[in-house]
Amino acid sequence: MQREMLWFKEVESLAPPTIRGARNKDGMSAEELFRESHRDLMKHGEEWLKATTSSCSVVGTLIVTAIMFAVALTVPGGNDQNFEYPLFIKQPLFKIFLFSTVLSLLSSSNSVVMFLAIFTSRYSKEKFLKSMPTKLMLGLSSLFISIVSMMIAFLSTIRLMLKHTNYTWGVLPIMMLAIVPIFLFVLSQFPLLLHTAAFSTYGNIFNR
């Protein structure tokens, strides 16, 4: 639907101003004819957007509630019994853990807000041109940042826990496994994000 809107706007910009308001033999203007002929496409686009945003918002909500709040409230290594501050507070890995946890929580919250905005929007044809794709890009980008940050926080915690043990050899296999969900997300969602951002919303599909 977005591409059809881009073509419509491009043809409209090339048409002489004197014929832009012209009507056909059925008394319909170009905009009215476009809306009528693309009614089914708009409906399919709305259904696809709702299904996509619903699935992604579930993932974002799970990261916020079930994972990141638990991670934020559970300090790696526990607290010092005398001074009540984290035992690993001076460790660089703890700072990485803290930063990545906050970043993941904020970005996942932002993605949920973006997906909710799409889900509750009024689906007019004008919104398929810029508004919906922009919100979708922001939501997917925020969700990607959230997943990456969550994995960094997880790996930082594992490294802190195993630092002074005989199981440091287990860090590398865990790191390799942690890359899998990131790779799967990129593989499944990056083509959509790239197409929307580079070729439609902020790119030039007409090469001029």
TrEMBL record:
Where do the PGG domain residues begin and end? 46-158
Which UniProt keywords are present, listed alphabetically? Membrane, Transmembrane, Transmembrane helix
Q: Which Pfam families match?
A: PGG (PF13962)
- Signal sequence residues: none
Q: What superkingdom heads the lineage? A: Eukaryota
The transmembrane segments are 48-73, 93-119, 140-161, 167-187
Q: Which InterPro entries match?
A: PGG_dom
A single Gene Ontology CC term: membrane
What is this protein's record name?
PGG domain-containing protein
- Source species, please? Acacia crassicarpa (northern wattle)
